[in-house]
Design goal:
It comes from Arthrobacter wenxiniae. This protein has 337 residues and is α/β, with parallel strands linked by helices. The chain has helices at 12-19, 23-31, 38-51, 81-95, 109-119, 135-144, 165-177, 193-209, 226-236, 246-258, 292-307, and strands at 69-74, 99-104, 125-129, 147-150, 159-163, 182-186, 212-216, 240-243, 268-273, 286-289, 317-321, 323-325. The longest helix has 17 residues, at 193-209.
Length: 337
């Protein structure tokens, strides 16, 4: 009996399952078999023949058989930081005649890699926001499907970076003017490339301004992680902190309030990103404002250029600056800290 009867057209995933390999391995065998061991390549091609799979090449020359869709992968769809990214990419894609496929990767590299594999046959390209993949996994993914990374610059792929440098240096100027001398960085996820970048800039700025730098964490980039971060801040004896993102900072404000610690009289808090709601919390949050929607639009334009036949042979990098927005969560350093 023909294995295709009653089952519809065979997919890349069907071939991978039959051959006992990853979907990305099947893609590489079909596009560049010299990169795969002969034994694995033979198993894949045997599955291709048995299932009658018709391979579709990647890249502009092989896009005709795919839906006009682009996948956007984000680590946490409930994080307001990604609202502007979702909106920016969707508007740009809609104007170009594409639909957006939105995937929540749950802050998991495994979920992200699995989702990428499933997108190979259902989308023409991918935008990865704050990817949690390893450097090697991200580089492999870029060989399988056209993609652009947001806030990731270590895998040789086209990228749009929200540069924290200017905003963090402004934050230190602000804190120095308020007599702060020991400042903590509340770090984000251990696998977050942007968290490491922010720490590097933080250390540099602290040295430049003669400030003692303390690193706390890592913490999940959620409001619920703010309680632990606030407790650690009080233990650190730092008089101010810069949190990896606004959600962490807002969670810290709530915890400090329950502990009877007054912000900013007792300790100053600065967030990152200036998400919707950062100016509504109590007190309104001083934060590093990021051009989030603009970054999403630039990333989408870069990907659409590739899908329309443009070349990414020379890797494209776009960097967008940040700046400090001062509100009421920062003040003069307490004399006893």
């Amino acid at each position: 009996m023909d294995p295709r009867e009653g089952a519809g057209r065979a997919t890349l995933r069907d071939v991978a399952k039959a051959a006992g390999v990853a979907t990305s391995t099947v893609s590489r065998v079909l596009s560049d078999p010299g990169r795969i061991s002969p034994k694995t390549a033979a198993a894949v091609m045997d599955a291709v023949r048995k299932l009658g799979y018709e391979a579709r090449p990647h890249g502009p020359a092989g896009l005709a058989g795919k839906p006009r869709a682009v996948a956007l992968l984000v680590p946490d769809i409930t994080n307001p930081f990604y609202f502007d990214i979702i909106h920016g990419t969707q508007e740009q894609l809609k104007a170009a005649g594409y639909i957006q496929l939105l995937v929540d990767t749950e802050e998991s590299a495994d979920v992200e890699e699995s989702s990428l594999n499933s997108m190979l046959s259902s989308s023409r390209g991918v935008i990865l926001a704050a990817s949690r993949l390893s450097t090697d996994a991200l580089a492999r993914a870029a060989r399988d499907i056209p993609l652009v990374a947001l806030n990731r610059n270590d895998a040789g792929v086209p990228a749009v970076l929200i540069d924290p440098s200017y905003g963090i240096h402004q934050a230190f100027q602000h804190l120095v003017s308020l007599d702060h001398r020991r400042v903590a960085y509340i770090s984000g996820p251990a696998q977050s490339w942007s968290s490491q970048w922010r720490w590097q800039v933080f250390e540099e700025a602290a040295r430049n301004y003669g400030i003692e730098a303390v690193r706390l964490g890592p913490y999940a980039p959620k409001q619920t992680s703010g309680a632990a971060a606030a407790d650690a801040l009080l233990t650190s004896r730092a008089s101010a902190c810069l949190a990896f993102n606004d959600l962490l900072a807002i969670g810290m404000l709530a915890r400090l309030r329950t502990r009877g610690v007054t912000v900013p009289a007792d300790v100053s808090i600065i967030g990152c990103d200036d998400i919707f709601g950062a100016d509504f919390c109590n007190p309104p949050l001083t934060t590093i404002t990021a051009p989030i929607e603009q970054a999403a639009r630039v990333a989408t334009s870069m990907l659409l250029n590739r899908l329309d036949g443009g070349s990414l042979a020379t890797r494209q990098i776009a960097q967008l600056p940040t700046h400090l927005t001062v509100r009421e969560s920062t003040g003069m350093a307490a004399a006893d800290r």
